[in-house]
Amino acid sequence: RYKVMKNWGVIGGVAAAVAAGMYVLWGPITERKRRRKGLVPGLLNLGNTCFMNSLLQGLSSCPSFIKWLEEFTAQYKTEQNQSTEHQYLSVTLLRLLRALSCQEVTEDDVLDASCLLEVLRLYRWQISSFEEQDAHELFHVLTSSLEDERDRQPRVTHLFDVHSLEQPEITQKQISCRTRGSLPPVSNHWKSQHPFHGRLTSNMVCKHCEHQSPVRYDTFDSLSLSIPAAVWGRPMTLDHCLHHFISSESVKDVVCDNCTKIQAKGILNGQSIENQRTTFVKQLKLGKLPQCLCIHLQRLSWSNQGTPLKRHEHVQFNEFLIMDIYKYRIPVHKSSQNELNQKNTEETTPGTKDGIAVKPSDAEQLSGTKPLFMNGACSSSFLMSSGTFPLAAFPECSSPVYLYRLMAVVVHHGDMHSGHFVTYRRSPPSPKNPLSVSSQWLWISDDTVRKASLQEVLSSSAYLLFYERVHSRVQHQSLELRAEE
Fold it and tell me: What would the DSSP string read from start to end of 21-77?
């Protein structure tokens, strides 16, 4: 009897040890299933890699970026040696983002993104996982590396590329032309920019003669906005930051060629004159708005002693963002017909005047009414419950051309010396309707994922904002017609 009890005790101990081991390795099965439902995989923290994890979660919520990566990497699938795919940043990034957006079946609740750091080292980026890094800097690393990868592709097909010459879509006439004239360019998808690519315009106007210098264009992949000085009793909004970004500034002691020519006409005997220096007004505008808009709120400031400080104030933002008043428009010449066209343009786009964005107070004077919608400043109670934009409630904004929907928010907790990045992002759409936009939000901190409300998202202290452009039905039809042409 003693031996029987002893044997049963040993068996029970072994069973308990096995059960404990299974619990440690896999956790309770019911909790695992409950956690996976409606959530996305988390990311393993490899040692201060929350900056990378938060950025990947934000990018995975932008379907246009994932679609562009799929088109971008289409060429690699036709290569004979597919073992080199892991050396491409675009391929590695696409696999991670597809897994985080639940487009690829994975049984893991937590993914390992160390493959991204490895491929970045091949692109000569040494990112240490044991030092504090910045999510916005990594965003620039990724976009610039993708541009380098695109530029490394051959712009023309080599004459000895037999594989390309044997493609069925290439006719005999095209092949014969290759030996006579210029080489055909590569397919268009290598020339296309990523959806975060946009252009800024720099406008210079002489205050004395009102002569406008040629408009200069510069590229951007994110808008880095400084936070203006706070005014007591007035909340800080995203519109304030955007208007501060494009606000005009005076540049003194600039040579004006037009003023010099006017001065020279009044001088006889061909006497030489000095270059006329005047004050110019410089203003930035958005010449080309991207499909995916990344907004970076600069929270770094400096004390009088020269030490870095972090600005913790809340900047109000909304689920939907209207960018029409920040778009550059070509100035219209003064003529009867053009004045009429300009009047129609101003009526359809309040807040613009002669290609220059104006302040909200000036926009009110132009329209005669106070604008009901301000990005981050309006009463957002109507935005809290649904994922649709109630355009009918705002006649002045009934047909915005550049309307954006919030997709993700990256938040930094802590100070300038140490902290932690977390992400609010939309849940992936249902597989039954992949083109829809989910109204469910998630809060993600490395490998921890939970559901969140829109109120919690809009109350966060944003560091990076990811918006995606919303096209109207008319715009969708025009895009489809362009694609068919």
Answer: HHHHHH--HHHHHHHHTT---EE---SS-HHHHHHHHHHTT-HHHHHHHHHHTGGGG
Tell me which residue has tokens 């696409």.
Answer: 94
Choose among 404, 419, 378, 423: nearest CA to 468: 404
442-470: burial string, b at 16+ Cβ within 10 Å, e else: bbbbbeebeebebeebbebbbbbbbbbbb
User: Do the Cβ atoms of 249 and 356 come closer than 8 Å?
Assistant: no
- Token digits of residue 213: 């210098």
Q: Which of 96-100, 232-236, 287-291 has the lowest mean pLDDT?
A: 232-236
Length of the chain in terms of residues written? 485
CA distances, 61 to each of 10, 46, 386 (Å): 52, 22, 18
Question: What integer best gives the mean pLDDT of the chain?
Answer: 74
pLDDT band at 292 (very low <50, low <70, confident <90, very high): very high
Determine whether 40 is exposed, middle or buried from the number of CB atoms within 10 Å of its CB (0-12, 13-18, 19+): buried
**Catalytic (active-site) positions:** 50, 420
Is the Cβ–Cβ distance between 223 and 290 less than 8 Å? no
pLDDT reported for residue 60: 96
| The token pair that represents 131 in the structure block | 């030092």
DSSP codes, 211-246: PBPPPEEEEESSEEEEPPPP-TTS--BHHHHHHHHH
Q: Which secondary structure element, helix H or strand E, spans residue 164, and what is its range?
A: helix 162-165
Q: For residue 420, how far is the Cα from the chain centroid?
A: 21
Measure the CA dihedral 203/207/210/212, to 10°: -20
pLDDT exceeding 90 applies to what percent of the chain? 37
Residue 269: per-residue pLDDT: 56
- Residue 319: Cβ-neighbour burial (10 angstroms; 0-12, 13-18, 19+): buried
What separation in angstroms does the CA of 280 have from each of 87, 210, 256, 354, 458? 49, 9, 9, 17, 39
pLDDT tens across 189-201, in order?
Answer: 445 789 999 999 9
Radius of gyration of the chain (CA): 28
Give the residue with greater pLDDT, 5 vs 420. Answer: 420
The type of residue at 195 is P
C-alpha 259/C-alpha 22 separation (Å) is 83
What tens digit of pLDDT does each residue of 420-479 get? 999 999 999 877 787 789 999 999 999 999 999 999 999 999 999 999 999 865 554 454
DSSP SS3 for 390:
coil
* Residue predicted with more confidence, 334 or 87: 87
DSSP label at residue 409 = E
Q: What is the mean pLDDT of residues 59-77?
A: 92
